Amino acid sequence: MSALMAGRRPSWPLILADLALILFLITLTGLGEDEREADPGVMAAARGGSRQVVAEAAVAPAQALYRPVAGGPSLEEWLAGQPNDPRATLTIFAHYTPGKEAAAWAEASALARQAAASKLAVRTILTRGEESDLYASLAYDTLTEPVPSDQ
User: What gap in Å lies between CA 26 and CA 32, rounded to an integer?
Assistant: First the structure.
């Protein structure tokens, strides 16, 4: 039995090397797709090449969340009941399904107009998702310096 095994070399290092290479290629492919989706230049080109200023957003954990509901308070009324802290930022998140970008932007803009009287820093973040959603987060976020996009 040992004579048979003496002539064979173990094949597990070769299999392990193949699996490592496959994992590396899959990871590399996935990273390339994520970077294209997150590239503001690609988004600007898709919108017709308009030049935009993109700010990297650091979103802190929410101190309070607002979600518009029928019969509930408006965002302006809700903000009036929150502590007035100039360090706070109101971030409006609008998630949209493909083809519903304009409707999501209109709803988010309406909330931003309601928040204008609060004297808080307001920003709007639109993202594509599996279902539409709209809410606002009051938090102590920080904004980095705006970066001009390539287009």
Answer: 10
Output the CATH code of domain 53-148: 3.30.1330
In sequence order, what are the beta bridge partners of 142? Answer: 58
Q: Where are the domains of the chain?
A: 2-46, 53-148
**Residue 136, Cβ density class (10 Å: 0-12 exposed, 13-18 middle, ≥19 buried):** buried
Length of the chain as a residue count: 151
Cα distance between residue 18 and residue 14, in whole Å: 6
Q: Are 136 and 90 in contact (CB under 8 A)?
A: yes
How would you classify residue 20: left for phi > 0, otherwise alpha for psi between -120 and 50, otherwise beta? Answer: alpha
Q: What is the pLDDT of residues 80-132, one digit of tens each?
A: 888 888 888 888 999 999 988 999 999 999 999 988 888 888 888 899 889 99
Q: Name, in order, each residue with C-beta under 8 angstroms of 61's C-beta and a sequence gap of 6 or more.
A: 139
